[in-house]
Write a structure and sequence with these properties.
- This protein has 465 residues and is α/β, with parallel strands linked by helices.
- It has two domains: 5-269, Rossmann fold (3-Layer(aba) Sandwich), CATH 3.40.50; 272-460, Orthogonal Bundle (N-(1-d-carboxylethyl)-l-norvaline Dehydrogenase, domain 2).
- The chain has 22 helices and twelve strands.
- Strand 3 (62-67) and strand 4 form a beta hairpin.
- Helix 10 (271-295) runs antiparallel to helix 12, helix 10 crosses helix 15 and helix 10 (271-295) packs across helix 17 (383-400).
- The longest helix is centred in the middle third of the chain and has 25 residues, at 271-295.
């Protein structure tokens, strides 16, 4: 094993390989070999083993096609990942990875649903996969299924070391993501009877918040051939991404960390202002147009932007419902909105609506609900939001009842299925406490307006579906 300082990453998806690993590559390109950092990437899920298998066969190396809205592209070889492990096949590898003085930090991308949070930001200890991990950690045997089980194994390994302090930086699209992970993992550790570990963590582990941004769609099957033509190299797992990237990290580090500020990463004490703008304008915009676009038969998100009606709805949502409710502004929000629309229109990225639409049940409270609460709290009635949310409901209704064929993935789909199987599906939807968190009780006129809009929207799709 090399003597390089190391980062570990949980979750080997395209976003990580086009973001954290990309930034580390930029930094390494400026450093002599002896000062470079490298990633050990760890797969956690059995169903995602194909990626680590392909990466391992290439010694962790792959190509990143970075493309601008005008079609200008560059092909970047990424070699900042030099170890790839699969903890879904052998969880004992976690102890071996983290029991290493060269490991200084862990970064994480497991998607929003991978945190199993309730509407009160508590970890759902009764979820079967979380309950499995509590048993695995208590009994010190078995296969973890969630981030919490694997993180417990990692931190137990660090606790056994003389200098085990470590930064745990989640990079998923959750507000206050570091604080929420710290709270949720603390609850998990308590349930797993890890009181000594919790005390050790108070001194030796930090959970900085972070904001990350880059669109990395599922690459076309032809990309490997394109890499061969452009670079003359075989690559079974290249990635595609836009030419925009952003990473903001809370300056709250427990150990050494690469000097990524040298390549554009922002270290700050106030991540919240950055993430609020990004989550509500970009992620919220993605959410709001995905389902109406799907119902109109569009395949990629840029088609939504080139539909004048949909683009107008999104502009109204941003300018009337979202931006007026963001008070802490780290940059010009209207200029930022225009940049995002340009990014959304990038047909060379051709980001699939199928990818963006997934996991809507857990995304709605994160991306949309805060805007609704703040708008209504200031006396503004969010008409644009109501139109678009009605399309989300119709999408789920038509999908679940079999009238609309769409490849939709959501670990919480059973929640929507429960609504649709009630005598009054719309009423069940509007009264779900995990979705609305009391909003419709506080503002009943909002719920009534949305109910009427859902009826109008469902009628509009009657003939088509």
């Amino acid at each position: 094993m090399s003597d390089h300082k190391r980062l570990v990453h949980f979750g080997i998806g395209a976003f990580h390989r086009g973001h954290q690993a990309y930034y580390l590559q930029l930094l390494n390109d400026t450093l002599p070999e002896s000062e470079r950092w490298y990633y050990t990437d760890v797969n956690l899920r059995e169903e995602t083993r194909a990626i680590p298998d392909a990466l391992r066969a290439q010694n962790g190396q792959y190509h990143f096609k970075r493309i601008a809205p005008n079609g200008d592209a560059e092909y970047i070889k990424i070699s900042s990942i030099d170890r790839v492990e699969d903890a879904s096949a052998d969880p004992s590898v976690i102890g071996r990875i983290f029991n290493d003085d060269n490991v200084k930090a862990l970064t994480i991308t497991v998607t929003e649903g991978g945190y199993y949070l309730t509407d009160t930001d508590d970890v759902n200890l009764s979820h079967p996969e979380v309950a499995n991990d509590i048993t695995v950690i208590k009994q010190q045997s078995g296969q973890p299924k969630t981030l919490f089980g694997f993180l417990a194994l990692a931190l137990l390994a660090r606790q056994s070391m003389a200098n085990g302090a470590i930064t745990v930086a989640t990079c998923d699209n959750l507000r206050d993501n570091g604080h929420r992970l710290a709270k949720a993992f603390g609850q998990f550790a308590e349930a797993a009877q890890l009181s000594d570990l919790k005390q050790w963590m108070d001194v030796n582990v930090t959970f900085p918040c972070s904001m990350v941004d880059r669109i990395t769609p599922v690459p076309p099957a032809s990309l490997s051939h394109e890499i061969k033509q452009q670079r003359g190299e075989e690559d079974a797992c290249p990635i595609l991404g836009e030419d925009f990237e952003q990473w903001v990290i809370e300056h709250k580090l427990a150990n050494a960390f690469p000097a990524l500020d040298a390549v554009g990463v922002t270290f700050t004490k106030n991540v919240h202002a950055f993430e609020e703008a990004k989550i509500r304008i970009l992620n919220g915009g993605h959410f709001m147009l995905s389902y109406v676009g799907a119902l109109r038969g569009y395949q990629t998100f840029d088609q939504n932007i080139h539909d004048d009606e949909l683009n107008g709805w999104l502009k109204a949502y941003h300018q009337k419902d979202v931006i007026p409710t963001i008070d802490d502004r780290p940059f010009d929000l209207e200029a930022y909105r225009q940049i995002i629309i340009s990014r959304f229109s990038n047909g060379y990225i051709a980001d699939s609506i199928e990818r963006i639409a997934m996991d809507s049940i857990s995304k709605f409270p994160q991306f949309i609900l805060p805007t609704l609460k703040l708008s209504l709290g200031r006396g503004h009635f969010p008409i644009s939001a109501i139109i678009l949310i009605a399309h989300w409901y119709c999408f789920l209704s038509l999908k679940i009842t079999g009238r609309f064929v769409f490849s939709y993935k959501d670990p919480y789909l059973s929640t929507a299925e429960m609504w649709m199987h009630q005598q009054d599906p719309v009423g069940a939807f509007l009264s779900d406490p995990d979705i609305w968190q009391g909003l419709n009780k506080q503002y009943p006129e909002f719920g009534e307006s949305l109910k009427r809009q859902i009826a109008i929207t469902m009628d509009a799709y009657q003939e088509q579906y």
